Amino acid sequence: MTNNKKTEYDKVMSFQFEDLPIRGRICQMSNSLNKIIFQHSYPDEISKILGETMVLNVLMANSIKLKHKLSLQVHGNKDLKLIASDYIIPKKPETISLIRGYAKFNRELNFYSKKFKDLLGNGYFATILDQGDGNLPYKGISSLNENSLTNSAEEFFKNSEQLDTKFNVLIKKTLNKKEKVIFKGIGIMLQILPQDKKSNDTNNDKHKINELSNLAKEKIFNNIDEWNKISSIFENYLCSENNNLSYIHHEIIKTGLKNLYTTKLSLIHKNTQRLIELYKPDEIALESVFFSVNAGTAIKLGQARGAALSACCGDDRSIYEYSPRRVKMIITGNGAADKDELQKFVKKKLRIRRKLEIDASDALGVALCHGITSIDSPGEIKAI
């Protein structure tokens, strides 16, 4: 695996959580995968399972102290007979690692099932560890899970290493900048580290690793090129979790379409005051002013913001403001995220299950952004 520009999609990175007994690996692969797939003219369905195996191989190899070679083999008894992958550490330290892949299948078919179970049927999942020290390689075998290859890998770690492990792997067929068909693969591995803990703590760790796995799948797999933002995504999530930021209430102030403009401003001011008197916040966060091409629209938005802002002042209450880009970066890890993506993360972080209006998720996003920032980076904020 290498990081030069010609093979920018062949990467692997490790990470560990400071306050959790969980470590992880994330791998992105394209160059190596496409060389193998197009050299052998593998069908798409076969290519995707081969890609999953190769990504899993890299993740697993980088989670152990590998000195020579780790091989993965997936054996089936239907149209797909064998998927094999080797990850090799060269003897020369300055040389990049190597990845190989191979598939044996029934080439006489014109159509291949997209279902894992239908392609492989019953079989087994095998790992072969060769440390190149002259000793016999270690071979571990487990039954093939009928649902997916990642489930098979998870069960293997659970049974052989007694480690709770979560894998997410995605192989995607897409077009590059030259309109050429290519495959991209991404995989995330999360693992609970062994330690002496009470059963309740262990259950909490299992719950946490499932949440982190789902978060990574939801965020990273929606944009396969965002893999290097995994650390900020996890960091923001854990910050909101560890500091017990929780949802209490939200409300959209309705001003009425037919009301006079001055009446609308009055309603904004009065209802903002009412909510402040009801919930008595110590701090208030607002979205900062953005510049509009239309001068008339900008003036009206500024006046509406002024009506709300004037209601917030007083009682030694601190007021802060955040730009929309800052809010999106803190909440989603992507400053260019759209409103729907922001809404999804706000609902997840605050555990809101009911329908949420876009205006409400925008406002809650600002509040959540302030909560995370004031706890995690208090030196970066200043009251207006």
List keywords for this structure.
384 residues, 22% strand, disordered N terminus, Hsp33 domain, Nucleotidyltransferase, domain 5, elongated, four-stranded antiparallel sheet, 11 helices, alpha+beta, five-stranded antiparallel sheet, 2 domains
Structural overview:
The protein is of the alpha+beta class and 384 residues long. Helices cover 41% and strands 22% of the residues. The protein is built from 11 helices and 11 strands. The chain has helices spanning 31-40, 44-61, 116-120, 149-160, 199-220, 230-242, 261-279, 295-312, 324-332, 339-350, 358-376, and strands spanning 11-16, 22-29, 69-75, 80-88, 98-105, 124-130, 138-143, 165-175, 181-192, 283-287, 318-322. The strands form 3 sheets. It has a 5-stranded antiparallel β-sheet. A hairpin with a 5-residue loop joins strand 8 and strand 9 (181-192). Helix 9 crosses helix 11 and helix 10 (339-350) crosses helix 11 (358-376). The protein is elongated, with a radius of gyration of 26 Å. Mean pLDDT is 84; it is low at 1-8.
Structural class computed from helices and strand pairing: alpha+beta
N to C succession of SSEs: EEHHEEEHEEHEEHHHEHEHHH
| Unreliable runs | 1-8
Helicity, in percent?
A: 40-55%
- The overall strand count is 11
% residues in beta strands: 15-25%
- Average pLDDT works out at 84
Regarding CATH, which class of the largest domain?
Alpha Beta
Counting H and I runs of at least 4 residues, what is the number of helices? Answer: 11
Q: Termini distance? A: 49 Å
Strand order of the largest sheet: 5-4-3-6-7
